[in-house]
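Sample 3 of the quickstart, ligand pyridoxal-5'-phosphate:
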Amino acid sequence: MSPIQSNLNTIRKTLPPLVTLVAVSKTFPNSAILEAYESGQRVFGENKVQELVAKYEELPKDIAWHFIGHVQTNKIKYFAPFISLVHGVDREKVLKELNKEAKKNNRVIDCLLQIHIAEEDTKFGFDVEEIHQLIASKALTDYPNVRVRGLMGMATFTENQEQVAREFRGIQELFRSVKQLLESPDFDTLSIGMSGDYDLAIQNGSTMVRIGSAIFGARG
Ligand SMILES: *Cc1c(COP(=O)(O)O)cnc(C)c1O
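Result:
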């Protein structure tokens, strides 16, 4: 068994059965992805559109590709034909453009609303008030070719576990309240947790973890 496959097995053992593992393959070559694929992994995450499209074209077609990067609206058209989930919807303009491109491709695109949960100031995303405004405005119903499946967040990059736990608790609370407001059975995904904090994320209701370096090794 290769190191990648053994890392995957170790991680899978610690994940509750209903938690989806997104293997974050950004910067890693197709050969690494294929090793993971051969041990059964089918969900992969990328954060650069060009790299994502190249990998999509070259790799097996039953891979579910997730876009986890910051979304530039002018690049949505490149992944719209095949993307399985877009994690980083952080403004209404992205919903609008996703809807347009999904329609052109005669499909519905699943996405997550990115929430700004980190106490540090550098990450993208809606804050709590903006999410409530978005829902109250009924804007989400203006985009029939987009299906909002849940929320995504990134905790502060810090050793302080208390702080990370606090941030995850915050997004879990928001996830529950939005779920109640929307009354939609499709709203079922809370994407939190990366290599360094996925255990804490799972304790706080994560249904989808995005793990890169703990599977593939350190990025160059
Ligand atoms: C790179 C990345 C990850 C994975 O990070 P690791 O620490 O390598 O697990 C998860 N989510 C997003 C949004 C990323 O950009």
